[in-house]
Hints:
- This protein has helices at residues 22-43, 71-81, 92-101, 115-120, 149-152, 170-178, 193-198, 209-219, 221-224, 251-261; strands at residues 10-11, 14-15, 48-52, 60-61, 66-67, 85-89, 106-111, 122-130, 133-138, 159-163, 182-186, 204-208, 227-231, 239-245.
- The relative contact order is 0.17.
- Mean pLDDT is 85; it is low at 1-16 and 33-43.
- The protein is 35% helix and 25% strand.
- Helix 2 crosses helix 10 (251-261).
- The chain is built from 10 helices and 14 strands.
- It is elongated.
- A 5-stranded mixed beta sheet has the order 6-3-7-14-8, sandwiched between helices.
- It is of the alpha/beta class and 265 residues long.
- It folds into 3 domains: 10-43, no CATH class; 48-130 and 240-261, D-Maltodextrin-Binding Protein, domain 2 (3-Layer(aba) Sandwich); 133-231, Periplasmic binding protein-like II (D-Maltodextrin-Binding Protein, domain 2, 3-Layer(aba) Sandwich).
- The two termini are 38 Å apart.
Amino acid sequence: MGVRLNVFARSGTSWRGLPVGAGRCILLALPAMIHMAFSAALAAEPPLLVLYDVRPPLVEFDGRQLQGSIGKRAQAALERAGIAFELREVPVQRQLLMIEKGLMLACSVARLKTAERMHLGIFSLPIAESPPYIAVVRRDATMPEPATLENWSAHPELRWGVQAGLYYSDYVQTKISSARAEITRFNTSQQHFASLLLAKRIDFVVMQEDEAQEMMKSQGPATTSLVRVLPLRDLSHGEQRFFYCSRSVAEKNLRALDQALQIRP
């Protein structure tokens, strides 16, 4: 950062616009002024890095700010908090590494709270609650009753598509870990699972209700006639979403963010 100093031009025995002797005082004060200017520049806190990944309709980006059912509330809270911040789109796994190493002033948007993450980073107050998880199933797939994730995950003949690197919820993660169903992990977004269902590479996926609706809307009637959306009886509640922040983030900024999150539009 450059430091700009305005020096008056000397005329005769006085500095133009200043009493005699004032010019000498300014010259004597120059070293201290320069030191103060550079100290202020070095002390200025860099902007908070706000990490996000696009997950329509929860979190979206319009080229200027966050949108979506959770993204819009996150953007509003950041602006109300009065914190200088910079938005950056980063894959989920990289976001978590950046937060948990604690080397950057960064917060991740719309993360779920887990016991492990609480040891590695800091959570804000909730941004919002996301809708419950449901299943999207191939229409020609025979799904056993009852329609619960616990039941389906116990059937080895079923193929369950899972997004690699995504933490669904504590309950869903336990079913993934203990599943007898065939788990296939894909490095793709939730919105691309429709093509995997149509290609018969998987039998079902689990996603949040509004994400499923967005996927069906984006695929068009030809696709939606070949898949169906089913509620799962053991997944009837939504999940709270938070800012997940590095331990390097200043406490005053975390407090400001929490205060802003308590204000509901």
